[in-house]
Amino acid sequence: MAKVFTVPEVAMHNKKEDLFMIIHGKVYDCTDFADKHPAGHEILLEVAGKEASEAFEEVGHSEDAKAMLKDLFVGDCIPPVSQSNMSLKLLRARHAPVPNIMMKLISDDL
Ligand code: HEM
Fold first, then answer.
1. Closest ligand 1 atom number to CA of residue 72
2. How much distance in Å is there from the Cα of 60 to the middle of ligand 1?
3. ipTM of the complex
């Protein structure tokens, strides 16, 4: 199963020597790729540790660029706390047990 990251966890990887980003809910480790990025590593640093879907799409990256993502994938990102709390309310409304991952999110938020 893919590793699951929270947004604050990804945010810690915000340096050239430790560079993650989130694109469409997936987390990519671009540390080694940064120096190979055709437009340079500086531009990747701007979105290091952050949500980068819009930046990635705006460039109009080629299919080759999109295919490269597969090798950089390290896990899935669960939504920011506000959205998760909404999901939690929905779960409670259905009397479903709260999954452990949600409990972790809530305790992280305290
Ligand atoms: C892991 C994610 C990324 C991969 C694998 C990737 C890959 C590539 C590749 C292969 C190219 C060459 C052109 C192409 O094939 O489309 C490229 C160009 C470029 N990328 Fe990325 N890229 C990534 C993320 C980003 C992000 C987040 C930004 C912006 C913040 C960005 C900005 C650019 C720019 C400005 C170019 C030059 C476009 C041009 O010359 O027309 N890239 N990238």
1. 1
2. 8
3. 0.95
